[in-house]
């Protein structure tokens, strides 16, 4: 998310690229943006910008004597960048994909100053002013910022951990997630120490009467307090430049990553604060750390790749197991159906042959009907083919043999009586 330094660099970029240029026509808004239309149109106007904390104000100033529709009033448009807002200055034929607000120059071919925001969390306010609930800027209004914090330490905002208080724009306008991590890391302050406890010590700084003024200034520079670092650290980022607003083809990200000492650096620990934001730190988290939260260490890039490969392999194994389980469930059902249907078809063909019937090409539907309602004989045959005969007990076999012998004896007696009668 863009923080104070990024918005200040954006305002400097706008003033640089728009210097000496005249803009003309309507201000165009993209169809997908839910922000309001900017009802400004002039034959000739200039653009200037200024930043304050996490806000940028664009002033559209009509040129006197250049407008055919009479004098036009200047307009202020205040921007809040959200998660991904930025400004770009490009030719009209090369407009960025997510350019949601466009100001065109009075030249041929035209160029455009665009507010680009691919996540569309950014907002602009027509005829806007600085938000009233935002305090003085930590970079451009340092003395007012310091005074605003120290005279309001009784506010309930300072009952929270210092890492959460630093994101409160009412007192720390311009400080964001990476800045708070870097500031607390340099002072070795636990992120979940109570904010009031940390800041009360700055109300009555220790005096060193034996030191000269020059030595006091030197000591202060070498050992800045938390409020001073809230000014110094963002200004370091501004002096570094870049952040998408430097010269083309410059490696801004590499320089910024080399500057970071704590935020998202391998070996550092991290926790989620009460607002769900991740704070990076070193050492103990402090007495107000959320209970039940386990600290996570930032692994190296190599470790991250290894973990991703392991996760992919586990996912593949899990999908293979699921596939095998589904095949095992469907296999027996698939086997039973062909057996019963084949047996039924065999029964039908055999019975047809015995009756002397021939199978003709148009009798397929008849075959299907017979397969659905087979005769008793094919059913018995199918049952016999599906269920192999079980071995009978010895006693049952002996009982079955006795009636068989009796029937044979009676047959022999009948034949003898017939012979006698014949004689």
Automatic annotation (TrEMBL):
Cellular localization per UniProt: Chromosome; Cytoplasm, Cytoskeleton, Microtubule organizing center, Centrosome; Nucleus
Plastid recorded as keyword: no
GO MF entries: DNA binding; DNA N-glycosylase activity; DNA-(apurinic or apyrimidinic site) endonuclease activity; lyase activity; zinc ion binding
Main localization (coarse): nucleus
UniProt entry keywords in alphabetical sequence: Chromosome, Cytoplasm, Cytoskeleton, DNA damage, DNA repair, DNA-binding, Glycosidase, Hydrolase, Lyase, Multifunctional enzyme, Nucleus
Protein name according to UniProt: Endonuclease 8-like 1
Domain annotation Formamidopyrimidine-DNA glycosylase catalytic: ranges: 2-122
InterPro entries: Endonuclease-VIII_DNA-bd, FPG_cat, FPG_N, Ribosomal_uS13-like_H2TH
Gene: NEIL1
Function: Involved in base excision repair of DNA damaged by oxidation or by mutagenic agents. Acts as a DNA glycosylase that recognizes and removes damaged bases. Has a preference for oxidized pyrimidines, such as thymine glycol, formamidopyrimidine (Fapy) and 5-hydroxyuracil. Has marginal activity towards 8-oxoguanine. Has AP (apurinic/apyrimidinic) lyase activity and introduces nicks in the DNA strand. Cleaves the DNA backbone by beta-delta elimination to generate a single-strand break at the site of the removed base with both 3'- and 5'-phosphates.
Residue numbers spanned by region Disordered: 279-423
GO cellular component, one term: nucleoplasm
SUPFAM superfamilies in UniProt: Glucocorticoid receptor-like (DNA-binding domain), N-terminal domain of MutM-like DNA repair proteins, S13-like H2TH domain
CDD domains to which the protein is assigned, alphabetical: MeNeil1_N
GO terms of biological process kind: base-excision repair; response to oxidative stress
Residue ranges with Basic and acidic residues bias: 311-330, 364-376
Keyword DNA repair annotated: yes
Low complexity bias locations: 383-397, 405-415
């Amino acid at each position: 998310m863009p923080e104070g330094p990024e918005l200040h660099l954006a305002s400097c970029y706008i003033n640089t690229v728009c210097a000496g240029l005249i803009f003309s026509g309507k201000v165009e808004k993209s169809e997908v943006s839910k922000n309001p239309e900017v009802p400004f149109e002039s034959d000739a106007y200039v653009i200037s910008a200024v930043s304050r904390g996490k806000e940028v104000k664009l002033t559209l100033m009509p040129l006197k004597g250049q407008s055919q529709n009479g004098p036009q009033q200047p307009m202020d448009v205040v921007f809040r960048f959200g998660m991904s807002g930025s400004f770009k200055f490009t030719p009209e034929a090369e407009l960025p994909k997510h350019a949601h607000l466009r100001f065109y120059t009075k030249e041929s071919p035209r160029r455009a100053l665009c507010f680009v925001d691919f996540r569309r969390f950014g907002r602009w306010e027509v005829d806007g002013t600085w938000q009233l609930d935002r305090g003085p800027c930590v970079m451009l209004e340092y003395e007012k910022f310091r005074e605003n914090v120290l005279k309001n330490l009784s506010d309930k905002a300072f009952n929270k951990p210092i890492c959460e208080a630093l994101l409160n724009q009412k007192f720390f306008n311009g400080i964001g997630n990476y800045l708070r991590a870097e500031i607390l890391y340099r002072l070795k302050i636990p992120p979940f120490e109570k904010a009031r406890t940390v800041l009360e010590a700055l109300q009555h700084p220790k005096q060193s009467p034996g030191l000269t003024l020059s030595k006091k200034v030197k000591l202060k520079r070498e050992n800045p307090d938390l409020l001073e670092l809230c000014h110094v650290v963002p200004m370091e980022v501004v002096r570094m430049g870049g952040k998408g607003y430097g010269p083309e083809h410059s490696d801004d990200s590499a320089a910024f990553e080399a500057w970071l000492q704590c935020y998202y650096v391998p070996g550092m620990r991290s926790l989620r604060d009460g607002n769900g934001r991740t704070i990076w730190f070193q050492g103990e988290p402090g007495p107000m750390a959320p209970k039940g939260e386990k600290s996570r260490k930032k692994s190296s890039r190599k470790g991250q790749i290894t973990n991703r490969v392991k996760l992919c392999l586990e996912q593949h194994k899990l999908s293979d197991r699921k596939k095998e389980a589904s095949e095992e469930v469907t296999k027996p059902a698939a086997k039973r159906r062909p057996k019963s249907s084949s047996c039924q078809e065999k029964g039908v063909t055999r019975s047809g042959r015995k009756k002397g019937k021939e199978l003709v090409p148009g009798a397929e539907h008849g075959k299907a009907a017979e397969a659905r309602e087979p005769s008793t004989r094919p059913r018995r045959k199918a049952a016999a083919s599906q269920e192999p005969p079980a071995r009978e007990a010895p006693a049952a076999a002996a009982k079955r043999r006795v009636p068989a012998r009796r029937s044979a004896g009676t047959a022999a007696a009948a034949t003898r009586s017939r012979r006698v009668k014949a004689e």
